[in-house]
Amino acid sequence: MRKGVMRPGHVQIRVLDMDAAVKHYTDLLGLIETDRDDQGRVYLKAWTEVDKFSVVLREADEPGCDFMAFKVVDEPSLQQLEKDLVEHGVDIEQVPEGELKDCGRRVRFKAPSGHTFELYADKQYTGKWGITEVNPEAWPRNLEGMKVVRFDHCLMYGPELAATYDLFVNVLGFYLAEQVLDGDGTRIAQFLSLSTKAHDIAFIHHEEMGKFHHASFYLETWEDVLRAADLISMTDTSIDIGPTRHGLTHGKTIYFFDPSGNRNEVFCGGDYNYPDHKPVTWQAEQLGKAIFYHDRVLNERFLTVLT
Amino acid sequence: MSDGFEITEQCSGNRFHCEPGQSVLKAMEQQGLKCVPVGCRGGGCGFCKVTVLSGDYECGKMSRVHVPPESRACGEVLACRIYPLSNLTIECRPREVVETARQQTTTKSMR
């Protein structure tokens, strides 16, 4: 958080059929619908999140990710980051307050990987959902499905990892938590963090720009991951892989798809970092184990199915 | 088994039964066949693109990036989002051709 960029704030996901998508993200994942706007977008949040929304669904004729946003600590930091982005040669777009309901102005820019990101400082604080602010109970009793705890991170696929690293680390203040290096020492995967978390955003090298691999949601325990797997079967939801463990981050995980083919992850655990930790490195020849610690073989679908 | 349709995949010669209202890809997966690659199963990733050579079917929603209207008109569709109304003959193009097609598509960023 060296530059005031604090945490993932929201992700806007394109879906082919809004009703099916809302059912998936609320009934199955357990996100809570908090609003809709006159563009037809639906706003959702996970129950522990303190701001009004973290996931926005937009109906479109192709699925994928419109943008991911990070929340900045305050307006002066946002203004400084704006200057730093411009000085770095990044084209920025001003998105006015209220374009997303109850969200302050956003500074939008494209990373060299082809993905659109935003920074903002203000969003309506609605508090954790279903529990009181004073003397809070452990959890609300009327959560649905997987009862996801929070929107945690995204994994993006695209080119120009080095230039993207430069932007995220040197301008936005992320640090490199974990990486995959090929035989020449070229970084083919980078897991970047703002916090003690294993990643707040990750990139894997891919020739085509701007592809979306997954949006990930946090669960507390391995038992919750197994229960998520049960719910995926009960609802006949398209599964990708898992439950299993990653080598990278060591998170315990399961992957599945929303009804438009966007990949979701729910996971628990994973490594932590402090500023004195060195980045963790995996060698590309161990990529199978790095991605799927138990199978230790690459799965073509996981590497190539993207929206 | 009076209800349902027979699907024939021409490259592999595989034949499988598909229930009314069931997608071709789901029917194939349920019968343990692999003649069409399985991706997201949601019309989004374009992995299961096939060409329908004969027969009638209905389409669900599919990503316009992978199935633009002109492709749809000539039967190039996603197996996860087609629901047969008669027996079908489909052809699953070799993966290299699909890959080339994927690389030629450009993803519009927003709006």
UniProtKB/TrEMBL annotation, chain A:
<keyword id="KW-0560">Oxidoreductase</keyword>
<dbReference type="Pfam" id="PF00903">
    <property type="entry name" value="Glyoxalase"/>
</dbReference>
<feature type="domain" description="VOC">
    <location>
        <begin position="7"/>
        <end position="122"/>
    </location>
</feature>
<dbReference type="InterPro" id="IPR000486">
    <property type="entry name" value="Xdiol_ring_cleave_dOase_1/2"/>
</dbReference>
<comment type="subunit">
    <text>Homotetramer.</text>
</comment>
<dbReference type="InterPro" id="IPR029068">
    <property type="entry name" value="Glyas_Bleomycin-R_OHBP_Dase"/>
</dbReference>
<keyword id="KW-0408">Iron</keyword>
<dbReference type="GO" id="GO:0018577">
    <property type="term" value="F:catechol 2,3-dioxygenase activity"/>
</dbReference>
<dbReference type="InterPro" id="IPR017624">
    <property type="entry name" value="Catechol_2-3_dOase"/>
</dbReference>
<protein>
    <recommendedName>
        <fullName>Metapyrocatechase</fullName>
        <ecNumber>1.13.11.2</ecNumber>
    </recommendedName>
</protein>
<keyword id="KW-0479">Metal-binding</keyword>
<dbReference type="InterPro" id="IPR051332">
    <property type="entry name" value="Fosfomycin_Res_Enzymes"/>
</dbReference>
<comment type="similarity">
    <text>Belongs to the extradiol ring-cleavage dioxygenase family.</text>
</comment>
<keyword id="KW-0223">Dioxygenase</keyword>
<keyword id="KW-0677">Repeat</keyword>
<dbReference type="InterPro" id="IPR054560">
    <property type="entry name" value="XylE-like_N"/>
</dbReference>
<dbReference type="InterPro" id="IPR004360">
    <property type="entry name" value="Glyas_Fos-R_dOase_dom"/>
</dbReference>
<dbReference type="Pfam" id="PF22247">
    <property type="entry name" value="Diox-like_N"/>
</dbReference>
<keyword id="KW-0058">Aromatic hydrocarbons catabolism</keyword>
<feature type="domain" description="VOC">
    <location>
        <begin position="150"/>
        <end position="269"/>
    </location>
</feature>
<dbReference type="InterPro" id="IPR037523">
    <property type="entry name" value="VOC_core"/>
</dbReference>
Automatic annotation (TrEMBL), chain B:
<dbReference type="InterPro" id="IPR001041">
    <property type="entry name" value="2Fe-2S_ferredoxin-type"/>
</dbReference>
<dbReference type="Pfam" id="PF00111">
    <property type="entry name" value="Fer2"/>
</dbReference>
<feature type="domain" description="2Fe-2S ferredoxin-type">
    <location>
        <begin position="1"/>
        <end position="96"/>
    </location>
</feature>
<protein>
    <submittedName>
        <fullName>2Fe-2S iron-sulfur cluster-binding protein</fullName>
    </submittedName>
</protein>
<dbReference type="InterPro" id="IPR036010">
    <property type="entry name" value="2Fe-2S_ferredoxin-like_sf"/>
</dbReference>
<dbReference type="InterPro" id="IPR012675">
    <property type="entry name" value="Beta-grasp_dom_sf"/>
</dbReference>
